Amino acid sequence: MAGGALAGLKVLDCTHVIAGAYCSLVLADLGADVVKIEPPAGESTRGMLGLRADAFRAFDHVNRNKRAIALDLATEAGADVVRKLARTADVFVENYRPGAMDRMGLGYERLSAINPRLVYCSVSGFGLDGPYRERGGFDLVTQAMSGIMSFVGEAGSEVPCSTAVPISDLNAGVFAAVGVLAALQSRTATGRGQHVETSLLESALAYTIWETGMYLSSGEVARRNGARHRLAAPYEPLKTADGHIVVGVNSQRLWARFCKAIGEPALAGEAGFDTPAGRMQNRDALQARLEGVLTTQRGAYWLERLEAEGVPAGPLNDIAQAWDDPQVKARGLLGEAGGRRFVKTPIKLHDTPVALERGPGEVGQDTRAVLAEAGYSSDEIEALIASGAAAVERRTETKA
User: Fold this and answer.
1) Which domain range does residue 277 map to?
2) Under a CB-based contact definition with an 8 Å cutoff, are residues 343 and 61 in contact?
3) Any idea what the CATH number is for the domain that residue 371 is in?
4) Measured between alpha carbons, how far is 367 from 12 in angstroms, rounded to an integer?
5) Which tens digits make up the pLDDT trace of 273-289?
6) What is residue 399's predicted lDDT score, i.e. its pLDDT?
7) Mean pLDDT, rounded, for 1-11
8) Are 304 and 270 in the same domain?
9) Exposed, middle or buried, 215 (CB in 10 Å: 0-12/13-18/19+)?
10) Average pLDDT over the chain, rounded to an integer
11) Is 290 helix (H, G, I), strand (E, B) or coil?
C-alpha cells in the first residue's frame, strides 16, 4: 500500500485458519504487499467457523487487505510457482504442521537457498521441536494446556472456561509479526534473512505473567477468581443500581480517593479494610459493603464521581456499547474496505498510518496479476490454470 510504513515489502502468506493469517494481516495493515496463497477449492475458513446467512465469514476478518491467489501446492507446478515468487519476496509466512512445507519443497532451507534475504516465519501449535512437534494446534487446546482454562471463570467453579476470544491464535500472530520485523531489522545489518518461529502454546503461556510469576516465586498455583484481580482489591466489577461498573484500586492513594468518591471517607481507615492485605483477606465483606453503597445510584453517577477523584473506572459494556463509545469512535479503529467495515491493527503511526485498501479477495481473484508480475507470460499462466496447478476467481457460497 502506497505510503504505509512497510510499503515495498513483499510478503507471501501461505497460511490457513487464524494465527499465521493474523501475522500477515498485521504486516498488510502496516503497508506490506501481502499475497495470500490458498488451494483452488479455497481455504477451509471460507466455509466454516461461522458461515452464516448474514455474510459473516471468519476468513474475511483475518484476510482483508491482501491479494488472493490460488495454487495447488500438492502439484510440482504449483509449488514451483511459490518458489519463483519467493525469489523476490521479503517474507514468507506459513502455519502448517512442522515438516509439511519441507515435504512440498517449500521449507526454510529450500527457500532460503533460493533467496538468502528471505525472512521465513513459521507459526505452529507447539513449535518446531520437542515431543509435541507433530501435533496440530488449536486455540482451545493450547488455552487448556497452558493452564489458562484452569484459572479463568468464577471462583470456586469446577467448570472449565476459555477466554472466549482466541488469545493463543491471535497472540501467536502478533508475536510472529514482531519476530518478522525484528528479523527484517537484523537483515539490514547482515544482508541475510532468517527463520522466525513461535507457537500457540508458548504464546498463551507468555500471557500468564501474574500466574506464572506467583508460581515461580511462591509455588502458588492460580485458581479461578472470576473478574477479581489476584493482587489488589477492590479491582473488579461492582453492582450499581442499573448494572455493573468496574473499578481499579491498586494503591492506598487510590483507595482513599475511592472512598471519598463514594461518600464513605472513613472507610479508608476502617480496620480490615485499611491495608491492601486486609482488603484482599476480607474481599467478600468489602464487596458487600461497597455494593451496599453503590446500588443506591446508577452506574453513570458513580463513574462521574470516580473520574472526578482520578480513580480508574469504567462501564461494563457489551460489544455494541464498546463500539459506540465516543473514545473508541475518536480513535478510528474501524476501517472500511470493499464496502464493509473491519477492525484495523491498533498501531498508531502518525506519519505512515495503518490503512485498509482492499476487502477480502475471492479465491484466485489476483492469480493472473500476481503471476504476470512474477514474469509468467499469458500463455504460461493459462497453462497453469488449465493443468489445475493454479486457479482464478470463482464465486463462493457467500459473496461479500
Assistant:
1) 235-321
2) yes
3) 3.40.50.10540
4) 13
5) 999 999 999 999 999 99
6) 40
7) 88
8) yes
9) middle
10) 94
11) helix
Judged against a pLDDT cut of 60, whether residue 50 lies above it is answered with: no
In this structure, are 50 and 68 located in the same domain?
Answer: yes
Average pLDDT over residues 41-66: 78
pLDDT in tens, 296-335: 999 999 999 999 999 999 999 999 999 999 999 999 999 9
Average pLDDT value for residue range 232-242: 97
Among 178, 198, 182, 181, smallest CA distance to 128 is for: 198
Residues 20, 97 within the same domain: yes
- Residue 83 within any structural domain of the chain: yes
Residue 388: how many other CB atoms lie within 10 Å: 14
SS3 helix, strand, coil % of the chain, rounded to 5? 40, 15, 45
User: Same domain for 184 and 135?
Assistant: yes
| Domain identity same for 149 and 39 | yes
What are the cell numbers at 49?
A: 467457523
Residues near 77 by beta carbon (within 8 Å), at least 6 away in sequence? 384, 387, 389, 390
User: Do the domain assignments include residue 225?
Assistant: no
Beta carbons within 8 Å of 331's beta carbon, 6+ residues apart: none
Catalytic residue among 16, 61, 195, 229: 229
302 & 368 share domain: no
82/115 Cα distance (integer angstroms)? 12
Q: Are residues 50 and 135 in the same domain?
A: yes
Q: Each residue of 203-229: pLDDT tens digit?
A: 999 999 999 999 999 999 999 999 999
Residue 93: strand pairing partners: 13, 121
Residues sharing a CB contact under 8 Å with residue 6, sequence separation 6 or more, in sequence order: 27, 30, 31, 32
> What's the total number of domains in the chain?
2
244 included as an active-site residue: no
Whole-number Cα distances in Å, 255 to 245, 251, 275, 297, 308: 16, 6, 9, 20, 14
What's the pLDDT score for residue 1? 57
Looking at residue 14, the DSSP 8-state letter turns out to be: E
On whether residue 227 sits in a domain, the answer given is no
Is the backbone of residue 130 left (phi > 0), alpha (psi -120 to 50) or beta? left
4 assigned to some structural domain: no
Instruction: Choose the final residue of a domain: 301, 321, 341.
Output: 321
Confidence of residue 54 (pLDDT cuts 50, 70, 90): low
Residue that is last in its domain, among 286, 321, 356? 321
Pairing of strands 313-315, 243-248: antiparallel
